[in-house]
Amino acid sequence: MRKFDFSAPAELFPSRNRKIASKVRYRRFDTAADAIRFAVEELPEPLLLGAYIEINEARLGHKDIRALYDCESYPLKKAVAVADKVVAADA
Description:
The chain is of the alpha+beta class. It is about 25% helix and about 25% strand. The strands form two sheets. The protein has a four-stranded antiparallel sheet with strand order 2-1-3-4.
């Protein structure tokens, strides 16, 4: 993957899934890194599948979001799943 600007402002558009009651709506983030972390760590999986993040008029789908979160250059600490709970990696 080419160099990605994790510091660029980003907008998150979660999918609309009528089967899941969710209060997650459009959100703006100061950085793409924050938007990516929110999408991966906070969105329920069915909402992430149809979600996209828009950065500088470019759209990133759920596969791109996951790839950026998993890449070595991702700048934020990642959460760790422990017994169906997400906790901070430094906890």
